[in-house]
Write a structure and sequence with these properties.
- By secondary structure, the protein is of the alpha/beta class.
- Helix content is 35%, strand content 22%.
- Strands 5, 6, 7, 8, 9, 10, 11, 12 and 13 form a nine-stranded parallel β-sheet that branches.
- The protein is globular and about 65 Å long.
- The protein binds guanine and zinc ion.
Length: 449
């Protein structure tokens, strides 16, 4: 098993202004839904949170323990990103195209490089450096079609002791040769990866048929078998992101009632299904989402970047559907969940919908954890949960500090972080209790010549 290079933290006490959610707040009056502790403390032991409370209440439990004083900054649960593509770290900011051309012209050629274990390993280190630097401590990612890329993704997560979800994509048509598996090889590779990684340390597996266009019906059938055989795993795919994509899908699957009907027919939809984008939905599809508990994933920066459309958060929520939120790197344009909220706020504004900053910060912490069924492990600072913590500084840049001079409430501070913040506002990040920023990072894998 991989050697852990970042050992679990010693016992330590973090002092700062704590914000933690126990339910989704609609706005600041929803005081039952969140705890804000002005002089708060988190006692961390063996990678878990042993106590959360006021400094005065927690400090007697921490006799002789190192205190890390983060005042006046905010302590929140580490951010959770529910949809991103690990092999697209060098695709971000590729000009000019909408979805299908962007895939063909930029993304597919780049993903072919992940056949190399050396390239995969190097990119994995840089991927995790990026997400951690932006305050994200857990993510759900697509790897490339190559088993090597998923190996690199999970190896590096294990080395950092991170709770990460992911899977190799299944794709056997409509892509370059170097990026195709077969129904049988995709099934076999996925079985081997599940056996090796799911539940090992903090890793969890997501069965990952890329989308209907890149899988034959035979492969979809095998994906359905994987979902049936592994109800403990997630399933992730893409849904109704772009009008040309939807039209092509309907050509390829003429017997399906609609786009979501393809996934439904192959048994892919459960409450562990994550459906990236879910923008242009038909009424029947919305009913199926509500009935199955499958989760749409809102990807604001990506949806604007590719000109895909406006996600109807309010409409879906009104039907009892739980929406997750994510960056969708590399069609997304920022690793920052703060910048993701910034663009998400604007997409909702364009539809006359509101995103209060308290609901926004709930969404990227506990909200995404709820969507993953992991709210008792991550996305919270409750005692007994995993010690993934982000430390936020709302005065990180001159523009933020200037605006902060006029801020009077916690909600205002959060909104400034949401609209103006990015990695510069992330002062420190703890993964399983271990401080990530400022520590020299050992490289264990030689960089490819
Ligand atoms: N649909 C299928 N693959 C992808 C991808 O890599 N990115 C986005 N945004 N949509 C997709
Ligand atoms: Zn995606």
């Amino acid at each position: 098993m991989t050697q852990t290079r970042f050992p679990k933290a010693e016992k330590k006490l973090l002092r700062g202004r704590i914000l933690n959610f126990s339910a989704e707040p609609m706005d600041h009056t929803d005081t039952e839904a969140y705890a804000y502790i002005e002089d708060g403390a988190l006692l961390i032991e063996d990678g878990k949170i042993a106590a959360m409370g006021s400094y005065a209440d927690v400090v007697p439990e921490a006799d002789g323990v190192e205190v890390v004083d983060h005042r006046p900054h905010l302590l929140l649960p580490g951010f959770i990103d529910t949809h991103m593509h690990f092999p697209q770290v060098q695709v971000i900011a590729s000009w000019g195209d909408q979805l299908l051309d962007w895939l063909n012209n930029y993304t597919f050629p780049e993903e072919t490089r992940f056949v190399s274990p050396e390239h995969s390993a190097e990119m994995a280190q840089r991927f995790y450096d990026q997400i951690i630097g932006h305050g994200t401590t857990s993510a759900v990612a697509y790897c490339s079609v190559h088993k090597t890329s998923a190996e690199a993704y999970f190896e590096e997560a294990a080395r950092r002791d991170m709770r990460m979800i992911g899977g190799k994509v299944l794709m056997d048509r409509n892509a370059p040769d170097g990026l195709l598996d077969t129904p049988q090889s995709g099934y076999d590779d996925t079985k081997e990866l599940i056996a090796k990684w799911h539940g090992k340390g903090r890793a969890l597996y997501a069965i990952t048929p890329r989308f209907a266009i890149t899988s034959t019906p035979e492969q979809m059938e095998r994906a359905g078998a994987l979902v049936a055989e592994h109800p403990e795993c997630y399933m992730q795919t893409h849904l109704s992101e772009n009008h040309n994509e939807i039209a092509f899908t309907k050509e390829l699957y003429p017997n399906a009632p609609d786009y979501l009907g393809v996934y439904e027919n192959y048994g892919l939809l459960t409450d562990k299904a994550l459906l990236g984008h879910s923008i242009h939905l038909e009424e029947r599809e919305i009913e199926v989402l509500a009935d199955t508990g499958a989760k749409p994933v809102f990807c604001p920066t990506s949806n604007l970047f590719l000109g895909s459309g406006l996600f109807d958060d309010g409409g879906l929520r009104g039907r009892g559907i739980t929406n997750a939120i994510a960056t969708d790197i590399g069609a997304g344009t920022s690793y920052s969940m703060l910048q993701t909220l910034n663009e998400g706020y604007k997409i909702l504004q364009l539809q006359g919908q509101k995103l209060h900053p308290l609901r926004a910060f709930h969404w990227i912490t506990r909200g995404n954890a709820v969507a993953l069924g992991l709210e008792h492990q991550i996305g919270t600072l409750e005692a007994g949960t995993e010690a993934d913590v982000v430390v936020l500084n709302a005065n990180a840049t001159e523009a933020m500090a200037l605006r902060m001079e006029r801020a009077e409430t916690l909600s205002e501070e959060l909104f400034i972080l949401q609209m103006l913040g990015d990695d510069r506002a992330v002062d420190q990040v703890y993964v399983a209790g271990q401080a990530q920023k400022g520590a020299p990072r050992e490289r264990t894998t030689p960089v490819a010549a």
